[in-house]
Design goal:
The protein has a single domain, classed as TolB, C-terminal domain (Neuraminidase), CATH 2.120.10.30. About 5% of the residues lie in helices and about 35% in strands. The radius of gyration is 19 Å and the shape is globular. It is mainly beta.
Length: about 325
Amino acid sequence: MISYSLAGLLMLSALLFSCSGEKELLNLKGQYLGQKPPGMIPELFAPGIVSTSGDEINAVFSPDGKTLYFSRDSRSNLSKAGKDYTIYYMKETSGGWTIPEKVPFAGEYMNADMALSSDGSQLFYCSDRPLAAGGARKPDADIWTVDVLADGWSEPRNLGPEINSDSNEWYPCLAENGTLYFSSSREGGKGKSDLYCAKLVNGIYQKAEPLKGDVNTIYREGDVFIAPDESYLITVSSDRPDTFGMGDLYISFRNQKDEWSEAVNLGKPLNTEAHDYCPMVSPDGKYLFYSSKKRGIDDVYWIDAEIINEFKSIK
């Protein structure tokens, strides 16, 4: 059970009302849970609702902006993949946004790092759930997918050996053409964790390959957000010499040879002495969401995506 601060509970109580026979709703209306948009200084997203006194990461909106997925520390499972997160969702209705609710396909396993296909029909995520029902929990994280249906979600499907390995696969993200980007600590990479992609051909993912160019290094690359047109990506590194703290966000650009440039630190005030990670740009391209430990716990933050355009002009 998540522990909320007293202020958070009072805020949630003030925002909450019940509809008989329907889901409980928050008295929040409009895009992005009705939150005031940030400027060029990162701000906590939806305090007391999404970002609480517990640990929350990820912020993934559906293409129409009417569903939000995020991950919350369950502190109840026995994950061996290094995380205890599970996926929650909220929906915008005519009466307001629904309260955060756990997705039914999550089960008792670690589930996090979500991404949606460009049409919103598939949700991708990472989990250490067993490959077969009743089997043992995996010692590593794989990438899974579910179909997003009108009344819920399909059963989870593992993406198989073309994508997954015996090591951890993390943070799937999809380009508009369906190409899947992710990070993996599998053998054969340049560093402790590298970035990979797999093209979608006739509805089938081809064998994943490491990204070309200079973006993969002897250091750790992970948590990749890919621009819909694959013109740039944002990644996280935790052990480069120019990091400000435990982990920073970096940007890399693709050239006409399909090669990726050396990643450049996105700088302050985005990056801090804490761990800054889990980047995801909103479907409308207006905001960069990410996670940070700068309060000592995992929280979701957002900032105007103009910060990305500033780096585009000097690439």
